[in-house]
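Sequence in, structure out. Go.
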Amino acid sequence: MSISGDRVCTARLLRMAAAIMRGFAVMTTHSRSTARTSIQQAAMLVGAVFLLVGILGFIPGITTDYSTMEFASHESNAKLLGIFQVSVLHNLVHLAFGIAGLAMARTVSGAYAFLLGGGAIYLVLWIYGLIVGHDSDANFVPVNTADDWLHFFLGLGMIALALALGRRRTPRTGP
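Output:
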């Protein structure tokens, strides 16, 4: 793909992301209650970050060695921000997580499930990355050491948000 072709592709991806975000904003503002809880806001923010990371993974320059990107293989040498190993599949997973986070943030229970379940998934990915050799065919996602530790902190952070913000507070009665 030429440089001008990359720019056109990047512009299309950014327009698509903006349209998705506007669509979710419209859907959430027309709900019964426009006030969002802290856990819903957190899930929306985490979902938006995943969506952004998924898009950035497809942008040459932000993703180094872009031309080496594979669909799903440890041989993909493309790195988001020059640090985190990515592939087409890896980027699509980030996009899917982002869309799921934005959609599930529409309800308190959905936001809680997204943060808690998503955090658990990322902790499993951390363990997977530690167990599977980075040069192994089983490393189809692919992940490198930087990805492994990012998955660990993402998992802990998402679970911490779910537990901290998902607590049900009952009103106090009496004096």
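Check: The first strand starts at residue 63 and ends at 64. The chain has a mean pLDDT of 83.
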